[in-house]
Amino acid sequence: MRRFLLLSLGFAALSAPAFGQAGQGDLAVTVYNENLALVQDTRQLNLPAGRSRQEFPNVSGQISPETVTLSGADVGVVEQNFDFDLLSPSKLMEKAVGETITIVRTNPATGAEQRERAKVLAVNGGVVLQIGERIEVLRDDGLPVRVIFDRVPENLRARPTLSVTVEAARAGPRPVTLSYLTPGMSWKADYVTLFDEQAGRIDVQGWVTLTNTTGTTYGNADTLLIAGSIGGRNQPYYDSRRGYRPPTPGSRPGTETPERESLGDFYLYPLKERTTIANQQTKQVSFLDVSGAAATRAYVYRNPWLGARNEGGSADTVLRFSSSRNQGLGDALPAGTVRVYMKDTRGNAQFIGENQIGHTPMGSDIALKTGEAFDVKVQPVVVSRQKMSDSRWRTVMRYTLTNAKPQPVTVDLIQDGLWGDVRIVEQSKPGERRSADEMLWRVAVPANGEATVTATFDTRY
């Protein structure tokens, strides 16, 4: 029955409620990363003196009514209401329960129309009508049928509408600015990168991807994007095993200030031209285009405490580059997805991996995992464990690194899961204690060859 209602209902001339302002005015939209936007809509109103009810259609269908403000010369707000029950054939029928409508049936053979007045008794999985002394179900039987409603119910709107009762100290036209926050609009950054390993260079194009699901189109809006976390809406990535995800070797936050506007602890990314943000639309705008920034490929293998394998496991493939002013991208990078491409021997760019970055200051060193190596493997083995006392153990680990590539590689080998009182008693190669939890060895592995690292740990467990 729902398909019948949506596709086959006809309407008589309907009287629509009169609006104080027929459409949007001069729009400024500020969009945050976290499904939130600030809309500032300046409309010209001709207000009478005293109290009047003004209606603002074309506001967001997800407006947060408690955030609405209305400002204008000599205007005060008395009351406001948000009407979001939208006009549709099915809603018209639901609101007509207990009311009388007109049913128009057309004879398919002669084209003659038959009209009957009917009272709508119920709309529950179908429409139940009382026509004279009989009860009838409005059926979807393929016959030409129209339903004519006498009027539009006052609480149904063609568009989401904000109704505001205002008190004006004087009569006359004036600009009035309506401001509100709304979910349903957000943006993120997407980065497309082309990595030339032989040249040690990377080309990066950054795109703003803006999505609008508010239920409303914002026409010719002055649009500003803000990068940063508002009110703790974003939570840090949580790793159930370790708490917070440790950084990949080669990552380091930057300390440079970009040449772009900031607001408090946020960076601003204004769109260069006004744009229409259509409802149910994803829009992309370029904000970064850099060629020839320095970049290298690296390999990282992280082993958990007492981790052992019967065969080698793949090292992570990591792309390292910088957002610095010199030899880097030269900008602060909003959080988003970095997609990496490389050219094959035929010169065609092929996709080789992607990963996320958080909000990244300018001057940062970025180490981005793009996948797992096919030819570079690490096999950790627990060689022995000996209990030295009631509270101390001695553990010998061996790590065998293999490289099937025709060129040498360097692997950042990390032994994870250590504690602050763990001591390295012996090691075949000098390493670096990155933190209380981690030991790092940078291991050169020859082309088509292997390398071995051994270490002895003194621990409480």
Explain what this protein looks like in three dimensions:
The structure is a single chain. The chain is mainly beta and 461 residues long. It folds into three domains: 183 residues, no CATH class; 158 residues, no CATH class; 84 residues, Sandwich (Immunoglobulin-like). Helices cover 3% and strands 55% of the residues. The protein is built from two helices and 31 strands. The strands form five sheets. Strands 13, 14, 21, 22, 23, 24, 25, 26, 27, 28, 29, 30 and 31 form a 13-stranded mixed β-sheet that branches. Strands 1, 2, 4, 12, 15, 18, 19 and 20 form an eight-stranded mixed β-sheet that branches. The N terminus is likely disordered.
Number of strands: 31
Distance between the termini: 69 Å
Total helical elements: 2
Q: Give the low-confidence spans.
A: 1-22, 232-243
Task: Tell me the radius of gyration.
Answer: 33 Å
Q: Helix content range of the residues, please?
A: under 10%
Largest sheet: 13 strands, mixed
Our count of domains comes out at 3
Question: Strand-residue fraction?
Answer: over 45%
What's the average pLDDT? 85
Based on helices, strands and strand pairing, what is the structural class?
A: mainly beta
Query: What spatial form do the alpha-carbon principal axes imply?
Result: elongated
